[in-house]
Amino acid sequence: MAEKVTFEENMQKLEQIVNELEQGDIPLEKALSEFQNGVSLTKDLQSTLKNAENTLAKEMTSDDEEVPFEKTESDKK
To answer: Cα 23 to chain center, whole Å?
Structure first.
């Protein structure tokens, strides 16, 4: 079974792709392939961040039940 790639590893790979594309000295076919890889990585990273946000926006009750944080008046502004 393949190891799961971490958020940080995906972020580093995306940064490498961006740097390669910014330099502009790679063949068009490779640039297109790397761009597609970058788009895919971006979607994965956004999904990971959204899942983390959803997890962090919850609290545990005394009954070990997850519930959303209640918004205070200052949060609503």
So the answer is: 24
Which two three-digit tokens encode residue 46? 């956004």
Distance CA 4, CA 67 (A): 28
Type of residue at 63: D
Report DSSP letters for 18-34, one per residue: HHHHHH--S-HHHHHHH
**Between the CA of residue 73 and those of 28, 68, 70, what are the distances in Å?**
53, 16, 10
Average pLDDT over residues 16-42: 96
More confident residue, 18 or 59: 18
Write the pLDDT tens digit of every residue in 38-77.
999 999 999 999 998 888 887 777 787 777 777 655 555 5
